[in-house]
Amino acid sequence: MATDAAPPARQPNRVQVSTNKKPLQFYLNLSRRIMAEHGEVELSALGLAVSNMVTVAEILKKEGWAVEKSLRTGLETLEGEQRSVSKPKMEVVLTKSPDFDRLFAEHPPPPRGQRQGPPAEAAAA
C-alpha cells in the first residue's frame, strides 16, 4: 500500500516574498515581528521577486534591525506544460541586531491585519 508523503511543515520564521501579493512594508513589518518572536527570519524569493526580497533585507540591515547570517542562491526548475523553466532563487537568513530590542520597543510594527497609516497628528490635520 502506497502512502503519500506529507508536505514539508511550514517554518514559522520563513517569509516567501512575492512581487504581487503585498507591499514592501508588509514584509518589513512581518520580518520584524518574526525576529522578535524567533530571533531570526528567513526571507525567500523566486524569479522576479528576488529584487523585492533584497530590498527588504537591505532596509532591515541599513536601519539597524538585522544582521545577515547566511545567503544562498540557486536555480529552481519548474515543470511547465511543454518544457521546464529555471528561475533564480535566493534565500537570506537575518538575525536580530544588537539594537533590535530597543528599536522594536520604540517602533513596534502595527498589529496583524491592521494597515500602518499616517501618524494620528497628520490624520487629525
UniProtKB/TrEMBL annotation:
One Pfam family, short name: Alba
Record InterPro entries: Alba-like_dom_sf, DNA/RNA-bd_Alba-like, UCP030333_Alba
Signal peptide segment: none
Start and end residues of each stretch annotated as Disordered: 101-125
GO annotation, cellular component aspect: nucleus
GO terms for MF: RNA binding
Residue ranges of domain DNA/RNA-binding protein Alba-like in the record: 14-64
Name of the protein described by the UniProt record: DNA/RNA-binding protein Alba-like domain-containing protein
Organism: Volvox carteri f. nagariensis
